[in-house]
């Protein structure tokens, strides 16, 4: 996904939220790009996991980990809960 496409998605989501007061819960949710430094051991572990699980990529791993952390630490946001439960019950085939 290129940067311009990301910006269009965010603008469309903002426009949708202004028209409809409910939060965007569909699969067309907007995305935010994050940049962070992580310990090299975690990076190697993620790379190894992705190499052995072709249905996963770095974005799915990070989203799943973040949803898991937030849910288990008391976040009550419905979208976070849905992400957590979707990953919990999604079967990955090797």
List its salient traits.
94 residues; globular; 61% helix; mainly alpha; 4 helices; 0% strand
Short overview:
The chain is mainly α and 94 residues long.
Straight-line distance between termini = 26 Å
Mean pLDDT rating = 76
How many strand segments? 0
> Helix segment count?
4
Q: Which percent band covers the strand fraction?
A: under 5%
Shape verdict: globular
Evaluate the radius of gyration.
15 Å
Largest sheet: none
Give the H and E element order: HHHH
Estimate percent helicity: 55-70%
Low-confidence stretches: 13-27
SS class: mainly alpha
How would you describe the overall organization of this protein?
The longest helix is centred in the first third of the chain and has 17 residues, at 3-19. This protein has helices at residues 3-19, 40-52, 58-72, 78-89. It is globular, with a radius of gyration of 15 Å. The chain has 94 residues and is mainly alpha-helical. 61% of the residues lie in helices and 0% in strands. α3 (58-72) crosses α4.
Helix-strand blueprint:
Blueprint: H1 3-19, H2 40-52, H3 58-72, H4 78-89
Helix pairs in contact: 3-4
């Amino acid at each position: 996904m290129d940067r311009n496409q990301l910006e269009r998605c965010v603008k469309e989501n903002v426009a949708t939220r202004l028209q409809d007061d409910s939060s965007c819960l569909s699969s067309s949710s907007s995305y935010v790009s994050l940049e962070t430094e992580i310990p090299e051991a975690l990076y190697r572990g993620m790379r190894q996991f992705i190499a052995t699980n072709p249905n996963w990529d770095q974005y799915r791993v990070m989203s799943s980990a973040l949803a898991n952390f937030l849910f288990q630490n008391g976040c009550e946001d419905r979208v976070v809960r849905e992400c957590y439960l979707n990953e919990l019950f999604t079967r990955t085939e090797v």
